[in-house]
């Protein structure tokens, strides 16, 4: 056994419960489902001391992950990424404690590995063998790789304008690739048709309960790497928002486990000016975001015109006294190159967006020179070579 203490699924909106044995996507009300755990049981084996002797990957937090039997874990070594001091960038910006959580070192080059490893593992445990995902790129790469390792039939639906590297990556892993004119929303609608007609199970962002459980391990790792404390500010690039929502869930779980106190970081959601539905909803004081017409940004992971978990993103930002901010394409481009030339990290443009946001937040006074700030660098720049050939 994996020592999982998961007990059930609960709707994030209406509270309806589901059994872990059910094969389910969303709640009947249409909102995301979240996994619940037995904290008292988890605390018996998940301790500061026990974690020190475990492998440095996301499965070290197994008590608070949903896979019931170890034989169903489909892993390529995801998680355990470095938290690096951004010394040169920090000095340039006048920040004493700027840190970079470098997710580009995950399998297939992005943080998507965490979520798709978990989704594929649970699908394997539930007896599913046909999975589909609409994607801007990196989620497709990750699902294709983990699906190949699990001997599953994988279908990836992505915009026809996607960088060819993502298409090649998915096809190399044996996935069926469908290219659709339009945005990821259009891809989602096409994928839904294949779910109905060809019996695929969708692992689209927050439309099944388990990708978020993999993504939340970024929060567990961050707390452990900081000696069971949390930073003052987390700046996170937001498309579907699973990582931000997952970390917010993780912080609550860590407090319930007695590993951290009630202090929370101010959560900052970063989007491109060409696709900023969360920023618009935040600025207007709305609980949900409107569909963003004609989304455009070279940061493909941010080209998400609507997110099923929009209300959860906005809740986390507001509850933490955080903010939502958009940055221009030129600011993204420059800041991505700054990360490479100053810190030696060739990151994806989504990562550059976090540094661009930090510069604006310092100028506005939202971030102080004494704040401990963590930027999440969610992917590698090696899959975005066309972006850098300007």
Which key terms come to mind for this protein?
390 residues; alpha/beta; Rossmann fold; 6-stranded mixed sheet; 4-stranded parallel sheet; 15 helices; 13 strands; 38% helix; 16% strand
Q: Strand content of the residues, in percent?
A: 15-25%
Helices, by number, come to 15
Helices and strands: which structural class? alpha/beta
Can you tell me the CATH class of the domain at 83-107 and 211-388? Alpha Beta
Strand order of the largest sheet: 4-5-13-10-11-12
Rg on CA atoms, Å = 19 Å
Element order: H for helix, E for strand: EEEHHEHEHEHEHEHEHHEHEHHEHHEH
Shape: globular
Summed up, what is this model?
This protein is of the alpha/beta class.
What does this structure look like?
- It is a single chain.
- The chain is an alpha/beta fold and 390 residues long.
- The protein has a domain at 83-107 and 211-388: Rossmann fold.
- It is 38% helix and 16% strand.
- The chain has 15 helices and 13 strands.
- The protein has helices at residues 39-42, 48-52, 87-93, 112-125, 138-149, 164-172, 184-198, 211-215, 217-225, 242-256, 277-283, 310-319, 329-343, 349-364, 385-388, and strands spanning 6-11, 17-18, 33-37, 83-85, 97-102, 130-134, 153-159, 176-180, 201-202, 233-237, 266-272, 323-327, 372-377.
- Strands 4-5-13-10-11-12 form a 6-stranded mixed β-sheet, with helices on both faces. Strands 8-7-6-9 form a 4-stranded parallel β-sheet, sandwiched between helices.
- Strand 7 (153-159), helix 6 and strand 8 form a beta-alpha-beta unit.
- Helix 4 (112-125) runs parallel beside helix 5 (138-149), helix 5 (138-149) packs parallel to helix 6 and helix 9 packs across helix 10.
- The longest helix is centred in the C-terminal third of the chain and has 16 residues, at 349-364.
- The model has no long low-confidence stretch (mean pLDDT 96).
